């Protein structure tokens, strides 16, 4: 920017002031400062009241006021106007190329006091003047200084003005160039209000007064977005705001078509000649680029995902393949192995440190597999091939019967891309089949044996059945025999006991004490024998089923009275306190009265027999919870050791079974009691301890059921 | 052992095929003040009964020729002997025999072995219940 040169001070001589002006003019690189310097100098050195420096525009006969002194702007502007036709004083001066004095008022020359105006063409004589100097003077003589200045400044302006004209012309060109730029370019103030905008920018950001409502709105929106982008650009960059371009993405709307457009905003701040800060913005349409970028990003992401998926798929596949216990081989179309899983490697991969035998076995396996594959490839269109291969275990040399299933892997266009072969070891299956065969054999043998055994069993059953019948008959015969025996026993016994009884009664005369003692022994032994015979007969009858149940309703108290009455002679002979106790609410009983009575009789007579002193109590009670009656005979006798308590219920058993036992009885009484109780649906229990007496209890249901 | 001197001694017909028993009972009955007649089988028992018209008959049931049940049935079906009480004697202790004996017309039933004194007690008991009704 040119700055005003310091003014020469008044004491300078004419030569010095000319020199200073000349230097000043040399330093000028623009027409206006040059003209201003000249106007200033004339005011100081040529006594000019008012003056102006005007130059001709390149095109047309128009004048431009470069600098003036003592004239208003309007007066200057009036000078610049060139009326139509002749008569303009300045045009005449320019045309004549000679200084001229206008003494009186001559429009459009301003009227200043009483003086006239000198118009002096600029430039050397003979050269078309580039402009002219206009001075108000008091006299008609041209000051020497003015002529000198005009001659000096003429060439300078002639050099500078055309350049400025070009510059002006250049502005038009620039405008056309800017308009030709496809990107919107505009100069705005800091708030984004456009000052200069090219066509594209106007299309987006400027709405004329005759624009449609839709366009106005779109433009309004765009302006708003653009202003905000600018504001954020200037505020966000802070200290760096004065340097370089700032980029922002600005989404705008195409007001004509309503399409969404994406622009990249490049803006930079400039300082205008008037010192105001303005912003130059270039908007680059990146809509397609944005779309492309987006699509590219998407593709990339998809690619990465696909790649990841493929990788994990591959891992999974590897794991699956290795986890399969059966060998799997993937071959290429020519039969070369692409990959195999671990089990397959054991069969087909050469062992690193294997023996020669192992190697040859692997080769043998390879050969077998190759011929199998060859079969598949010769097999025409079939996609699958199944075959039985006999492979060898490289490690052991054992034969491995294998079933191989090979499948062709076809590409998208149906071309062969590989072959997957899956082997299945059939050793186990064959072994199973062999075992099944054996099992079948054994099973049929077994079946035959079972048939034989069944026949034998049937025969045995038949034998058993006959034996059972025979046994039954034998049992019946035994019972009959025993019944007869008892009869045969009784007949002589009847005579023995009878005669003894008669002798003891003195039928044959008086007896000596010794005779009487001996006869008494015959009598007691005979009676014992009779008792034994009777009890054997009872057991025989029970076991032969010849002692049926005779069920009837009866009352316990009366039954006990009868028992006491029957045993009264024995009770009377003993020194025991014998009593009966009846429990509350004894119900009537439905059972076999004779058998209940026989049991109670037996238990009570036993108690009397084995008790020397103390008491015997018969207690009858009813247990509602089990609908059971109990008749307990408690004595204060010798008691029974627990070790013997079970034994005494067996046949012919007494605690003391020695021949010299102290107590009489057959040893069959309790055995019979137990049998009778069982027939009644009950049982006989014992509670006792040696020296503490015994309690025998008959338990039987209130209502007996017929067996 | 008291016997009435004013009334004739009752006649007891003892029927038993087993001699020892028959004679034993006979001896004891005589010892006890009865007159005694003996028969060793059913036929003989019928003959003696019709002939002697005893006051009471002791009848063993197991007898040859005609058994005791049959003999008793015939006695009870004959007007001459219908009223004579019959005491059955048996060594068969099996149940049902007493019922059968009563069905045949026996008035009493005694199981052997039966001591002579017990038998005499039974004879006296029966005669006492029949005493007044006996004809002649």
TrEMBL record, chain A:
Keywords: Coiled coil, Kinase, Phosphoprotein, Transferase. It comes from the Bacteria. SUPFAM superfamilies: ATPase domain of HSP90 chaperone/DNA topoisomerase II/histidine kinase, Homodimeric domain of signal transducing histidine kinase, PYP-like sensor domain (PAS domain). Residues 436-477 form a coiled coil. One of its GO terms (cellular component) is plasma membrane. This is histidine kinase. It comes from Pyxidicoccus fallax. Its EC number is 2.7.13.3. Residues 484-704 form the Histidine kinase domain. One of its GO terms (molecular function) is phosphorelay sensor kinase activity. One of its GO terms (biological process) is regulation of DNA-templated transcription. InterPro entries: HATPase_C_sf (IPR036890), HATPase_dom (IPR003594), His_kinase_dom (IPR005467), HisK_dim/P_dom (IPR003661), HisK_dim/P_sf (IPR036097), PAS (IPR000014), PAS-like_dom_sf (IPR035965), PAS_fold (IPR013767).
TrEMBL record, chain B:
Transmembrane segments: none annotated. InterPro entries: Bact_response_regulator (IPR050595), CheY-like_superfamily (IPR011006), Sig_transdc_resp-reg_receiver (IPR001789). Pfam families: Response_reg. The modification 4-aspartylphosphate is found at residue 60. Residues 11-127 form the Response regulatory domain. SUPFAM superfamilies: CheY-like (SSF52172). GO terms for biological process: phosphorelay signal transduction system. SMART domains: REC. Keywords: Phosphoprotein. This is Response regulator. The lineage of its organism: Bacteria, Pseudomonadati, Myxococcota, Myxococcia, Myxococcales.
């Amino acid at each position: 920017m040119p700055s005003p040169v310091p003014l020469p001070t008044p004491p300078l001589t004419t030569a010095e002031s000319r020199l200073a002006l000349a230097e000043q003019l040399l330093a000028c690189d623009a027409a206006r400062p040059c003209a201003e310097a000249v106007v200033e100098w004339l005011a100081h050195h040529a006594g000019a009241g008012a003056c102006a420096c005007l130059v001709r525009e390149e095109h047309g006969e128009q004048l431009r006021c470069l600098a003036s002194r003592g004239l208003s702007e309007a007066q200057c502007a009036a000078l610049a106007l060139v009326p139509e036709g002749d008569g303009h004083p300045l045009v005449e001066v320019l045309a004549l190329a000679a200084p001229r004095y206008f003494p009186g008022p001559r429009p459009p020359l301003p009227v200043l006091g009483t003086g006239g105006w000198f118009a002096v063409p600029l430039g050397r004589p003979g050269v078309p003047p580039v402009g002219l100097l206009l001075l108000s003077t008091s006299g008609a003589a041209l000051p020497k200084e003015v002529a000198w200045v005009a001659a000096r400044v003429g060439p300078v302006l002639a050099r500078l003005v055309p350049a400025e004209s070009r510059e002006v012309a250049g502005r038009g060109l620039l405008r056309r160039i800017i308009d030709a730029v496809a990107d919107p370019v505009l100069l705005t103030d800091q708030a984004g209000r456009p000052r200069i905008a090219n066509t594209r920018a106007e299309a987006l950001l400027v709405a004329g007064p005759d624009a449609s409502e839709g366009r106005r709105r779109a433009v309004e929106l765009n302006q708003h977005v653009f202003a905000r982008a600018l504001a954020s650009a200037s505020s966000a960059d802070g200290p760096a705001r004065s340097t370089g371009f700032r980029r922002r993405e600005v989404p705008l709307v195409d007001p004509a078509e309503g399409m969404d457009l994406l622009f990249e905003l490049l803006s930079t701040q400039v300082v205008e000649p008037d010192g105001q800060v303005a912003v130059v913005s270039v908007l680059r349409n990146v809509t397609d680029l944005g779309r492309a970028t987006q699509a590219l990003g998407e593709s990339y992401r998809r690619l990465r995902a696909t790649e990841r998926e493929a990788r994990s798929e591959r891992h999974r596949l590897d794991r699956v393949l290795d986890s399969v216990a059966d060998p799997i081989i993937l071959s290429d179309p020519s039969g070369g192995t692409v990959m195999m899983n671990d089990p397959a490697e054991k069969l087909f991969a050469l062992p690193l440190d294997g023996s020669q035998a192992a190697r040859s076995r692997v080769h043998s396996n390879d050969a077998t597999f190759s011929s199998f594959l060859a079969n598949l490839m010769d097999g025409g269109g079939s996609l699958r091939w199944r075959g039985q291969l006999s492979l060898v275990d490289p490690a052991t040399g054992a034969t491995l019967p294998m079933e191989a299933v090979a499948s062709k892997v076809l590409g998208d266009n149906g071309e062969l891309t590989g072959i997957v072969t899956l082997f299945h070891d059939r050793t186990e299956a064959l072994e199973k089949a062999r075992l099944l065969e054996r099992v079948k054999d054994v099973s049929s043998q077994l079946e035959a044996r079972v048939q034989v055994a069944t026949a034998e069993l049937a025969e045995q059953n038949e034998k058993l059945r006959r034996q059972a019948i025979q046994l039954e008959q034998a049992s019946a015969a035994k019972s009959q025999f025993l019944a007869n025996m008892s009869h045969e026993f009784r007949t002589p016994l009847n005579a023995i006991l009878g005669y003894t009884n008669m002798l003891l009664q003195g039928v044959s005369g008086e007896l000596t004490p010794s005779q009487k003692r001996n006869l008494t022994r015959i009598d007691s032994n005979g009676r014992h024998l009779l008792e034994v015979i009777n009890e054997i007969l009872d057991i025989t009858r029970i076991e032969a089923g010849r002692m049926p149940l005779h069920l009837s309703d009866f009352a316990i108290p009366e039954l006990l009275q009868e028992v006491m009455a029957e045993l009264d002679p024995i009770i009377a002979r003993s020194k025991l306190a014998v009593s009966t106790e009846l429990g509350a609410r004894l119900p009537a009983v439905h059972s076999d009265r004779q058998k209940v009575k026989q049991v109670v009789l037996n238990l009570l007579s036993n108690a009397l027999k084995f008790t020397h002193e103390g008491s015997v109590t018969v207690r009858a009670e009813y247990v509602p919870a089990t609908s059971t009656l109990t008749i307990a005979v408690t004595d204060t006798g010798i008691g029974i050791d627990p070790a013997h308590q079970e034994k005494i219920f067996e046949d012919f058993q007494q605690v003391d079974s020695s021949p010299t036992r102290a107590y009489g009885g057959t040893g069959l009484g309790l055995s019979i009691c137990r049998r009778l109780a069982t027939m009644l649906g009950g049982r006989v229990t014992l509670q006792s301890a040696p020296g503490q007496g015994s309690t025998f209890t008959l338990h039987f249901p209130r209502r007996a059921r017929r067996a | 052992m008291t016997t009435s001197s004013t009334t004739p001694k009752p006649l007891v017909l003892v029927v038993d095929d087993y001699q020892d028993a028959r004679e034993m009972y006979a001896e004891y009955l005589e010892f006890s003040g009865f007159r005694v007649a003996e028969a060793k089988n059913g036929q003989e028992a019928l003959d003696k009964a019709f002939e002697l018209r005893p006051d009471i008959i002791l009848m063993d049931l197991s007898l040859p020729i005609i058994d005791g049940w049959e003999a008793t049935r015939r006695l009870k079906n004959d007007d001459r002997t219908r009223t004579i009480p019959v005491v059955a004697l048996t060594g068969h202790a099996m149940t049902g025999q007493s019922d059968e004996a009563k069905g045949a017309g026996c008035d009493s039933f005694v199981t052997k072995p039966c001591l002579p004194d017990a038998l005499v007690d039974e004879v006296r008991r029966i005669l006492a219940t029949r005493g007044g009704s006996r004809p002649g």
